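Hey L., structure's done. Input below.
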Amino acid sequence: MTEIAWRPDGPAPLSVNVSHPARPGVLLAMVNGEMDYGNTHRLVTALGDAPGTGTDIVLDLGGLTFCDSSALGALVALHKRTTAAGGRLFLVHLRPQVADAISVTSLAQLLRVRASVETVLAETDRA
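Output:
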């Protein structure tokens, strides 16, 4: 699913493409563009009712070029929702700006940040 959001000063594209890797219990979402107050809800919409019971969600943020505090709040809410359902939320391929925002706010202590999707899949194999 691809979503596009708009800001008053022009387009702020945000696309979220959700897929299921060849592994049950893992949902992969590729997030591209800018995530801010005007379009953060698009991530939630794209994920739908996910997570299911025990489903791990992997957000590939390699294409995310900007995030504000509302985007960080959405990640925390998704983490809580995933954990409550018995799953885990992983963030991979963080660009420096996004990694800095997570680090400065101490969210790196809460959110599972990994280098790649492959790292997460290897970790979920062991769980």
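Residues 69-84 form the longest helix (16 residues). Residues 1-8 have pLDDT under 50 and may be disordered.

-- N.
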